[in-house]
Amino acid sequence: MKVIDFSGVPPSAQAVRAAGYAGAVRYISPPREPWMKGKPATAAEVSDYKAHALDTAFVWQYGGASNPDAMRGARGGEDDAKAADEQLKLIKRTGYPVFFAVDFDITLDQWNSVAVHYFRAACKVLGRERVGIYGHSRVCDWAREDGVIGSAGGGKYLMWQTAAWAQPRGHVHPAAVLYQHTHNVSGPGGTKIDINDVLHTYWGQCPPDKRPKPKLPVGTELVKYLKVQPDKVRLLQKHFTPGRGGKKIRYITRHHLAGVADGNTVWGWWQTRQASAHYVIAPDTRVWQLVWDRDTAWSNANAASNAESIAIEHSNAPGKDYPITPEVIVAGARWAAALCLHYGLGRPVFGKNIRDHREFGPTSCPYHLAKGGKYHQQWMDEAQRFYDILVEAKTGNALAPRPPAPAPAEPAPDGGGDADPDETEDTMNLDTIVTGFAGGDKPIRAPLWHFILHADRNSFDALVETRVLAAQVKELRDRLDATE
After folding, report:
1. Which pLDDT value is given to residue 178?
2. What's the rounded Cα separation, in Å, for the pair 97 and 112?
3. Is 55 helix (H, G, I), strand (E, B) or coil?
């Protein structure tokens, strides 16, 4: 994913999006020279970006190479941070972080004697979590070591590194969230731009307390998949068929959006287009549900296939030839694995319970995800790996439970919270074979979980959740005991 920055006349948000960029880092400082028409960003501009699903982060730089802002010391840092905060409020971006530019080949002596005090003063005004730095890789690291820039989570910091003055040449700091590698080239609308790689899910595009959640270790997010609980739900009211016409779910169909969008944006697209899918994997890896599983999405251009499948759309990333980020590939594969387990479809196998859109109509979709495409094997490997993890998490219930009929009308509520192993330890064996009734008047013999599932879906989910959480709490306690 790439974003741009510029000082000249701002290109329109439409032009930026059409060029394949995900957004921009915008100056909120006043112009130093008359030609700097892009300083400062305006409320209308950032609002237009938002309307076009583009993100914005913000940078402060008034001084040039001969009079750098950071070499004004503590008083300069205080004044600039206050001015930056006021400008953010003016453009209705209160609480966003600010990258303060160190746009020259600063030395360690200059940093220690003057510049670090500029950043410390900025931290006092804004709070450290709202302070970032732009500069070469070494000054980014000095700022991290001195604790004067915010954390971006996941071992990353609010570092916007430029390729200029890097030692060794081409070195990219592993904790950077942005990397400016191309300078002063013609961009959208003819404006001269710099081009930056986005290296992390959070790069200053929202206030710190609203930043995207970091990717959690597999063990802590299993409950979401065991319960088939999407992150967001925004249901379509048209362009799908209620029910499945008596058909059963037999496979998952892979799609790509041929665009960059989350569930909200796609929901808007499908208001005027006669198409839909059950799920959308957004660029931030969140799973959006737009059609209930029990209903038929208009996804495969084939009525028979639609009635027997669950459709998963994967957001592309900005760039040519419809790339998809590794994070979205993993998220889509994991969600498919969860659905395969939930509906008793078995371990993901292409051609059996995993299919591609292009099998059912004249389309190239899902393009690089399709069998033979460059993302296919990565997706399948993750789907199978994660399916095996989910089966293990059932604590011995190797057979997936059959879904209720009809499929759940909505995701099961999340119980949430940590469980105390002493209070949630199971006194029963869910695999115990018992005789009872489930969905009929004839007695049958089956594992206990089968009857719990059909009697009360929420009770079954609660048992699964408490067993998983209890194991997680025990693991955490063991780790804490080992470090004390």
Report:
1. 96
2. 23
3. strand
| Interacting residues of 362 by C-beta distance below 8 A, sequence separation 6+ | none
Classify the C-alpha dihedral 78-82-84-88 as positive or negative: positive
pLDDT of residue 416: 33
Q: In what order do the strands lie in the sheet with 309-314?
A: 232-233, 287-289, 279-281, 309-314, 251-256, 354-356
The model's confidence at residue 377, banded by pLDDT at 50, 70 and 90, is confident
Angle at which helix 116-126 crosses helix 73-90, to 10 degrees, equals: 40
* 271 band by pLDDT with thresholds 50, 70 and 90: very high
Task: Report yes or no: 452 and 463 within 8 Å, Cβ to Cβ.
Answer: yes
**Dist. CA 106–CA 108, nearest whole Å:** 7
* Mean predicted confidence (pLDDT) in 95-100: 98
Cis status of the peptide bond prior to 168, with omega within 30 of 0: yes
346, 384 in Cβ contact below 8 A? no
83 membership: H or E segment, kind and range: helix 73-90
> Strand (E) positions, 128-272?
131-135, 151-153, 156-157, 159-162, 178-186, 192-198, 232-233, 240-241, 251-256
Map tokens 């237009």 to a residue: 48
User: What pTM, to 2 d.p., does this model score?
Assistant: 0.49
- Residue bearing tokens 């004044």: 79
CB-based contact 204:132 (threshold 8 Å): yes
Return the closest-CA partner of residue 19 out of 59, 56, 54.
54
Q: Mention every residue, 6+ apart, whose C-beta is less than 8 A from residue 440.
A: none
Are 1 and 315 a contacting pair, CB within 8 Å?
no
How confident is residue 174, by pLDDT bands cut at 50, 70 and 90? Answer: confident
Cα distances (angstroms) measured from residue 415 to each of 224, 228, 439, 462, 464: 11, 13, 26, 7, 11
CB atoms within 10 A of CB 220: 13
Name the residue with tokens 């033979």: 372
**Phi and psi, residue 327, nearest 5°:** -65, -40
Q: What angle, 0 to 180 degrees and rounded to 10, lies between the N-to-C axes of helices 326-342 and 376-393?
A: 50
